[in-house]
Amino acid sequence: MIKRNLLVALALCVAFAALAFAQEPPVNVGERHGNMRAAQQLIQQAWQKVNEAQQDNHYNLGGHAGKAKELLVQASEEIRLSADAANSH
Prior knowledge:
By secondary structure, the protein is mostly helical. It is 76% helix and 0% strand.
């Protein structure tokens, strides 16, 4: 029982630490690439909804919501990189 409580406490500490550093993905693609900008805006909305779900569930989602937020940030960055690549051609 003590081992389980320790694991739960450790998981909560990790979740709160990750939350402190997690930042909403930016919308940093210009109007020149309207579809890519729209995609980034939708990613930002998804990130906000996942964040609300974490709060509603007291951050007890097994770390999966945090991982989803990380992947959303990564997806937003890839979109920015693709817009940069299009600009260079």
